[in-house]
Amino acid sequence: MKRFESKEDYLEKILQLSKEKDGVHSIDIARAMNFSKPSVSVAMSKLKDEKLIEIDKEGHIHLTPTGQEIAEKTLEKHELLAQMFINLGVSESTAYEDACRVEHDLSDETWEAIKKHVKR
What's the pLDDT band for 2 if we cut at 50, 70, 90? Predict the structure, then answer.
């Protein structure tokens, strides 16, 4: 995949959808992310090649342990950053949009400092 950000967004969305329903398919991801099915199919192929997802015979998409780890870390960042922005007075919709942009570019050092600060 061209951008790591895109990879993280797909993995995060697969994780979210898998919590909502049994058996995530490419069409579910396409609808949830407002992307075309062909674009999602290409992305799923690349994620599969990178061993971040597995696709079973029924077309269900499952995160591998590595994919799960990336997805959980991305989702944690997204949720915590959005909540932090909301607490600062940012509207919820803007907070979630901005959190999605920021979550991909933080260094581990900055992320750990943010988590430590928020948990105080």
Answer: very low
